[in-house]
Amino acid sequence: MAVQLDARPPVVPAPRHARSPRGSRLTRFDTRFSPYLYIAPFFLLFAVFGIYPLVYTFWVSLHDWDLLGTNPTFIGGQNYSQLMADPDFWHSVVNTLGIFVLSTVPQLLLALWLANLLNRQLRARTGWRMAVLVPNVTSTAAVAIVFGVLFGREFGMINWMLDLVGIDAINWKSNRIASWVAISTMVDWRWTGYNALIFLAAMQAIPRDLYESASIDGASRARQFWSITVPLLKPTIIFAVIISTIGGLQLFTEPRLFHSGTNAIRGGPLRESQTVTMYMFENAFAPHYNFGYGSAVAWLLFALIAIVAAINVLVLRRLGGGGRKEGTR
Amino acid sequence: MTRLWSAGRLTYAALALTAVLSIFPIYWMFVVASRTSDAMGQVPPPVTPGGNLGTNIARLFANTDAYFLTGLINSAIVAVSVTVSVVFFSTLAGFAFAKLRFRGSNALLMVIIATMMVPTQLGIIPLYMLMTKLNWNDRLPAVIVPALVTGFGVFMMRQYAGQAVSNELIEAARVDGCNTARIYWNVVLPALRPAAAVLGLLTFMTTWNDFLWPYAVLNDPENPTVQLSLRALSDGYYQDMSQVFTGTAIATLPLLLVFVVFGRQIIGGIMEGAVKA
Known about the structure:
Order of helices and strands of chain A: HEEHHEHHHHHHHHHH
Helix content of chain A: 55-70%
CATH architecture of the domain at 66-225 in chain B: Orthogonal Bundle
CATH class of the domain at 66-225 in chain B: Mainly Alpha
Organism (chain B): Micromonospora halophytica
Helix content of chain B: over 70%
Distance between the termini of chain A: 29 Å
Order of helices and strands of chain B: EHHHHHHHHHHHH
Structural class of chain A: mainly alpha
Shape of chain B: globular
Structural class of chain B: mainly alpha
CATH topology of the domain at 66-225 in chain B: MetI-like fold
Number of domains of chain A: 2
Largest sheet of chain B: none
Subcellular location (chain B): Cell membrane
Strand content of chain B: under 5%
Main location (chain B): membrane
Largest sheet of chain A: 2 strands, antiparallel
CATH superfamily of the largest domain in chain A: MetI-like
CATH class of the largest domain in chain A: Mainly Alpha
GO cellular component, one term (chain B): plasma membrane
CATH superfamily of the domain at 66-225 in chain B: MetI-like
Number of strands of chain A: 3
Strand order of the largest sheet of chain A: 1-2
Oligomer: heterodimer
Distance between the termini of chain B: 21 Å
GO biological process, one term (chain B): transmembrane transport
């Protein structure tokens, strides 16, 4: 994200002729303090309900802290060492990363392809754009329930279609990889069109004459796409990857409602698709209310997000640099 | 911009396929919602609407596990309050950042951008403890108050105010004796209306959809948001799928209506935000 911070507007001056000394003092007070007054609500509310809880999570994670919290005992890193040896936690980390890769990679590639299609002289332009965006404006919970049925073992439509082409019914809810695929499909369905519109916007900002001179030089349409479009889209792609990382690693609603019943928070009978956020929820809220342990899960997830985001950015920088070298003639 | 590439038959075919895949799950939701519950076991699965929608709606609203009507009303209250608040505070702060000069404004703006990257969802455990202290557990303020401001909103309004509000207009208002509050209300807010509307729509949809935090803090089954009603329906011991799908269809309907009416503006907002961000 390149934010132009230097382009400050010229100062809006105070009135040149104030009507009375008292008025001018009021005016000075107004121009000096109003800006702070206007931004204060954001900072106050975000501090209390955004930052404070996040930081306090770390403090809680150093304690044996239950629902009543009357007498939390300081236990240092014990929750963390217990987590490190907790197979269910690592299981959820692997699930989260698996679902993340399966959903993000095809999603961004498809979005790129779709944006390339939308970036043409189309009839009913807005109609197509709305059609690809509509999954994004549906209720996440509703969609998760619907996909849970589409991927049903006995009567699900997906298995029925697989049966038509001679593939045996897949148990999408209790086969680990299959459940990742099903949940990733849901995530892709929801976010591909959204990302396509983001990429489309960036594509439209690329000057046309770049393509014209490339085609004069005899570059094919595909060559132009990989050598001009993709490198110039790099900042947008990095932005989309970071946003997908932050959202994807915290995935909760889709896997939670893909399963139903009393133990759905476990993400299947053997935790086949329990994500880290689900594991945090399972420990921190009903019925366990183990706030300390849940908070440790939250902080490790926070660390995981930071690490994966950093790796993504590094890898993408490297890739983009190579692409440009190839592209110059 | 000069001419675009032309779109061939293949382009339209690919787009049509994408559109079908996009719309089908939503369409199918309404199909099942309008049929009897044995639609689930049929081979091949039905793909046309039936005539049972009215009965399903009646049974859904009478279902004593879901409190669906309460859920709808609660979601409306929450989404509308949050939307009004986010739009108000975002335009106010966005105006200050774009048009008023004050010490520390650049640094504070960077803080706001940074907040957009913070996974605040990971703080829900202390947030839950805070709500217990405030005695807001199981009550709507618990889901409204933490959502009253967003960094995204402030940033979006700041970007838009920079170009949409002219400095001459503000200066003229000052010379006429307007104080800053009146300038905000009479000059800036009207100029920000198109972008504020998009922000409002996006905020409404996000809030209507919110699941994790309401699920954590609203534990009283008699006082859910509509998404929690859906969860109750879906997790029920006896699953009547046509009833569950009626619920999902009704919970999706307000979003679809907003999208059909304001789709062009929403698309414009998303794409403009992408270029500027």
